[in-house]
Structures are given as C-alpha cells and as structure tokens.
Amino acid sequence: MVRPPTLVLSGARSRAERELVRQWTSSTFGDADADDGAVRVVPDDARELAGALDGAGPDTTVVPVRVVWPPAERDSSDAPALGDLLSLSARRRGLRHLHARVRGWSTSRGRVVAGDAASLAELRREGDRELGTPDGAGFVAFVRRRATLACDRAERRLTGDRYKVPRLMAEQIVASAAVRERAAGLAGELDVPVDEVLARTARCLEEMAAVQSPPAIEAFRSVMSPLHRRAWDLDVDTASLGDLREQGRRRPLVFLPSHRSYADPLVLAEVLHAHDFPRNHVLGGNNLAFWPLGTLGRRAGIVFIRRSFGDDAVYKFAVREYFGHLLDKRFNLEWYIEGGRTRTGKLRPPKYGLLRYLVDAADQLGEDSPGRDPLLVPVSLHYDQLHEVGALAAEQGGAGKKAEGLAWLAGYMRDQQRRIGSARVRFGEPISLRDALAEAGEGPSQLEKVAFRVAVGINRATPPTPTGVVTFALLGAGGRALTLEQVRAVVAPLRGLLGEEPSIRALDTPDGVVDTLSRLVSVGVVECFEGGPEPVWSIGPDRHHVAAFYRNGLLHHLLTRAVLETALFTVAAEGRELAHDQVLEACWDAALALRDLLKYEFFFPRKRDFRDELLAELDRLAPGYRSAPASADGAAELLGRAELLVAPGTLLPFVEAQWVVATVLADHEGALEDRGAFLDACTGLGQQWWRQQLLLGADVVSRELFTSALRVADNRALLGADADPGRRAAWRDEVAAVRSRLRRADEREHALRADVWGGERDAAGS
C-alpha cells in the first residue's frame, strides 16, 4: 500500500528538540528516512519550506509539530516556581542549551504536540481566500503562520486554556485581503499610497500588539504578584464562572471591570488563571509601558494603547483591525470602561471610545465569525481598603497625579506588603453585544446606553463592604466621635437595608464592628480616643475624602431608598392632603426630577425599571401601604416609619457639590472658556463654605464632583455665550431647594438619634 506524502513541519529549535521530533515521527509514521520518501521532516524555515512545497503535490499532508516543555503540575493559584519559569523559558531561542537539561530533570517534560493536519490543496484554497494569491513567498508565510496557530491550539490541549498564544500578529493582519481592501479605502481618503498605509499600520500594530508568551506570563505573575498577594485575601464568587468559561469557548469574552487600583488587572488575572480561563488581552494606557513593566507586560498580554489618538487616522484604523482580528480568533479582551481609577469610590462615567472600536470591528466580521457577537462581562473589583486611596483622595482636591515610573513602582510595591483586608471579585450577568445594541436602538446615544447597561451590571454585582458601612455611619455623625454602641445604632438598621449580604455579616457582632474600626484606625482614616470612660471613634483630621471613598462604594445599594426618601420629603413639604395614588404620582414626579439632576453621578436603570424599584422600596418601607385606607398625613406618615434615613448621607454630598458649581456659574458672565480656572473658583468657594460649616463634609470639595456638575450644566446648555443668566440662576435655585430638603432630612435623622448622640452629648456638657 502506497503511503500518502507527508511533510512534518518541525518547530524544533535545538538538538534535543530535533531528536524528540525524530522519535515522534518514527513512532507515528514509521522511519522518516525510508526510501519511499513519503514522510519528510522539514524545519520551520522559509527557504527550506519553500523548496519542500515547490515539489509537493496537492494531496501532500502538512503536519505541524512543536516540542513543549510544560511545568510540573501545581495548584493553579500557586505562584510559579523558578523551575517552572526555566522550563517554560527553555522554548526561547536564546535558551536552547536548557532543552537537554530540562529533559534531564524529567523524562516526561519534553512533549511533541501536533497541530491539525491539512492537505496542500486545502492550504492553497485558504491562502487564496485570505491573501488573494495562493503562490509565492506570501503563501509560504501563510503556511508558517497556520502551522504556528495550529501548534498553539495543540499546546493548549496539553497546558490548558491559560496559555492561548497569538503569534505573528502584525504580519497576519496586514496580509489579509480584507484588511488590504479597507486600507486601500483609507489611502484614498488620505490621498497617500496604499503601501504607505499598510506600512504605517504594521508599525502601529507592532507598537500595541501583545504577544502572550508562557514564560513571560509566568515571569510577569512571579514579578508582579507582590502587588496583590500580600495586601488582600481573595474573595471570589465563582458560581457563574463555569458557564462563563463554556461560553468563552464559543465566542470571545470582553471583561469590563470597575477600576479602583493599579492592582486590578493583576487580581482579575489571578482569578481567571485559577479557573482555567485563557489570558485576556488587557488594554492599558501607554503611560505604564516603562521598563521593565512595559517590556514584560507586552509579552504577558498587555496591550499598551496611546492615551489619545488625536487625528491619526492610521492608528485608529490599526486599533480597529487589531480588535477585529482578536475577536475573530476568539481571544478575550479586558479594559476599564471608566477610563481611569475612581477618585471618589464610586463608578465614574464610562468612556465610549474603545467600545466604538469594538462595535466597528465586530461589524466588519462575517456573519459566521464568533467575534461578531462577543459577550460583555461586567466585573466588580472591590476592596476593603486600598493603600493608594490617600493619593486618589488628594487628587480630588487638585493635587497632581504622580507620574508612573520605576521609582513609583518600587514605592507602590513597598506599600502593598501590608495586609489590609479582602479583594472582592464578582461577575455580573454577561451581555450580548448584539442584543445590547438592538435594545439601545439607533441614534447618537446608542453606545452610551450600552455602556450604562454595563455600569449598572457592575454596580449590581458589587457587594457592600464593612469599611463602607462603618464610614457611612461615622461621616453621618456631623463631626461627633461615637462610642461603639452609637456606631452600631447606625450600622444595625443599615445592615437591615442591605439585606443578607455575606460580605458584611461580620458587622452583626460588636467584635466585627470593632475589627473594622481598628483596621480603619491602622491606616489613619479613623482615630480612636481612649482617654475617657470608653473608647470613641471619629474620622481623622483631613481624612474625610478618604473615608468618603470607602462610603461611596456603598451608595449604589442605597440609591433607590435615598431617592424615595427625598421624594417623600418633597411631597410632604408641599403640605397637601393626597390620596394614595396621588402620593405615588407626586413622588414619581419628584423622583424623576432628582434623577435628572443626578444622572451624571449615579447609574439609574431605565425609567420603567426605576419605577418598579421605587415601588418595591416603598413596600419595604411601608408594607401594605398601597392597599391601606387613605391617610391625611400622606408622605409625612410614610417617612415616620423609617428606622434610618439614608438620603442625606447618600445624596447630599453630590447635591452640595452641584450647589457650589451652580452658584459660581450663576455669577459667571458669558461663556465658560477656561474650565480649569472655573474649577479653581469652585474649589475656593467650597473650601470657604466648608470652613463656615455650610457644607455637610469636606468631601464635598472635590474636582471630580465639580466636573460631574459641569456636565449637568452643559447638558442644560448653561455654559455657552448665549446662556440665559436667568436659567443659570434657576438651576442654582433648583439645586438649593433639593439641598434644603436633604438638610431637613439630615436634621430629622439626628433628631431620631438625639437620645443616643445629642442627648448624651448635651448631658455631658451641662
């Protein structure tokens, strides 16, 4: 029987590897040196492969093979050992001399893996589709790329999905006939030769493209693990990960986490690694591409993208084509939709630029491509405490952001050596990109609606933390120092509003509250005075912004209740006797007005969902109210049922920040041209009012909050030269009225606790 001709395309890089490939070929096909020449081992070299293909017939089978040196089995959450790094590194050309030694460490270490075979006829057909020509040097390069990718897939079957390795990225993208056709269109728009566009595209791709090398991934994990392993215990909700991993085998996943710390990508990568997900392509700013982080990170899957593209049409084209390639090949992506770390502790407004490139890239793919409909995965990364929170809080007051570099990295790693609680990782409900776009509808706000849906998913997945609950209590004390029982007097009803959340179960006991207070004392956020009959705790001097950072991470859990309380205060202030249905409609109108005022501070659900949530919250506040007989007290009677009023602590800082901005704007003449100088003026007025005790807390004075307030003014067309001064004054008065109602709510909340706070304080001072 005549054996069909076979070319074994060998990726062996050393004498030891060539010997392993020879042994594998002999055991698989028989003697490769037999006279019939049916099986031939060809090294992965362009010249030798071209010669072998030149005389091969269409029925020749090409079998790509590679030698893999996998590390020893260990728990997926363990840090890599030095031997593992050397074992993986032995595949690199510069370390060929290690191959024999690694093989000597364990006879099973060196493994030959074979990629899916293909006939030469099949390869020529596919080359024709991708390149537009089945012959010449372009076809040889195509076969080599196909062999590399086939061996990558085979290697993953051996090492697991953690190492999904793209190679020859720029060459593969630029060689595509579809990309060349789109490049020709761009060349026409720019009036430059198409070869110039392709060359510039290739350079852009080489600048940004990540190359996921297993040795580099393991080295990156080893080098960077001190940034998170010693600071936090990992608290991960794994319930949805099995289904998510299965979906990721059919379509690409786009992880969109919240951004609180420089360590966020490391924490998420560790979780996904431990659950056998392939390495994400993490999109980050090129401000972090300094040596050695940039050099190692790029080989570990980090895609360093320019912070601003400006008018560089070719760079934008390269980003879009890179996204399309990654989606089509089913590589997972990750980026931080807020565009930067939160300075206030709650989600920032999302940025839409990368989402636009994702949509455009997916639209360019064929209907049968798995990348046409990727899954968007909201991810919540939430921490009990952060070492870097002091710097984040300082930036709110106008302090400059410290430039990243080697000295900065060394200092950051030093800070991260102390244990400060848990890092909590939660995964929201995945969102089909196609479904999200369809639901958002056509129009200029389509991407904004998709991004807001992701943000809502992140908030829903974010658990409350003990530090968030305790700082909420202390910041609401009006500057008082509180005893343990006074703190618990707020924590207990707040704990009830938050439901049965395992993350804050420790606060059910006095010891749990004391432990949280002690951790806040240890980092200087809270101070404890122990010179009296019993200890008392208060926010430390100049630490209100830091405490507010932790409190603000809790607020989305209380938002609906806070809006309901404020709406009830609004209706009660009108003094009208209303029937049940009238009370509900009046509350709904007040809630919508508040929603519009704060829409750039919080992520509200769609109006129909928002109404349902308000009604559900009303049922929690006053069970059976909607079916009860009418009451002359109406809204005021409902407010009287509240064990704790959360509206002041939840909404007042943001309303007062908007009040500062509205006041400065009302006195401003003409267009707002210099926003920096305007924000300086707002900071000055805010500092003055804080010293005059006209603001609830020092955290109100925040450039980030002032910037959000400016977005409200811009949305209401109050910043242009033609803005009516009367409308600016009307906005100031509207905000002042809401502030007044929240202030009254704060006074009522303090009156409810007079026997615990004010009564004891007054008795002590009499």
UniProtKB/TrEMBL annotation:
Keyword entries, A-Z: Acyltransferase, Membrane, Transferase
Domain Phospholipid/glycerol acyltransferase per the UniProt entry, residue ranges: 253-384
Domain of life, source organism: Bacteria
Pfam families to which the protein is assigned, alphabetical: Acyltransferase (PF01553), GPAT_C (PF19277)
Entry annotated with the keyword Acyltransferase: yes
Transport keyword on record: no
Compartments where found: Endomembrane system
Protein name from the UniProt record: Phospholipid/glycerol acyltransferase domain-containing protein
Native source species: Actinomycetospora straminea
